[in-house]
Write a structure and sequence with these properties.
It is a single chain. This protein is mostly beta strands and 287 residues long. It folds into 3 domains: 97 residues, SH3 type barrels (Roll); 54 residues, Roll (SH3 type barrels); 119 residues, endopeptidase domain like (from Nostoc punctiforme) (endopeptidase fold (from Nostoc punctiforme)), CATH 3.90.1720.10. It has a 6-stranded antiparallel β-sheet. Strand 21 and strand 22 form a beta hairpin. The chain is globular, with a radius of gyration of 20 Å. The chain starts with a strand and ends with a strand.
Amino acid sequence: MTEMSGEPFDKRITPYKDGVTDQAHEGLIRARSYVAGEVLSCYDAKAPILAQPEHGSEQWDQLLLGERFKVIERKHDFYWGQALRDGYVGYVPVSAFRNDWYLPTHYVSTLRTYVFVAPNVKASILTAISLNALVSVTRYENGFAYINDMGWVFASHLSTFETFADDFVAVAESYINAPYQWGGRESIGLDCSGLLQQALYASGYGCPRDSDMQARLGIGLDVRPDLDGLTRGDLVFWKGHVAIMVDEQNIIHANAHHMKVAVEPLAAAVNRIDACGSGAPTAFRRL
């Protein structure tokens, strides 16, 4: 934790290091230097937010295409700063960014979609981008949208910021069998809190990054120890883990036991997690 006006604050979402912080925190954080910073856009399909400025360091979070990152410091081939969408702080490879002036006009509203070199299904594929990636559409042709001076995406795979999914649980279910990836938010692989965050983003809601932060969402439910009274969309929290109820008895979660996004009975997960020494659920929440 760091200190702001005498109170402890979370380093995960507070850009403070070696006495340096964002200029926006002047008067709030005691620091020797306040940096205005520069906002850059992620130009890769995804980029890691790392614990240290070195490849192979622990991945704490990810940026998706089009998401903004406020750079406070450069160290070798890495920028240190803060993701503007979920607030996470860490190091990101310099190569992931470009300085563009396009404001996002759409987001990817399907699990993933290809970027083609031409507006044609037979054209070569440049990359695949994930649900909730932010794009700027500059023109349309043949049912495709040209995005970010990059390439062409099937237009029906994009939505404006006025249209969102009706059921965040259904969004989570679209990730079934995606591999577990610590710190991941991409459609190829993600972790438990990334799954909840991405499902809520696609449904038009904000959501913090880590499960302990997410455990403050909604209202608390008193359903222990019989696990009765839960319904679709309720959230179940353990220390360091979160799952989503898909019905009264089953959950969906990205987990390291199955090493993928899986659906299983809540009771079975409770017993297994407790047997591993991680304890019983710590909270049940309803959005």
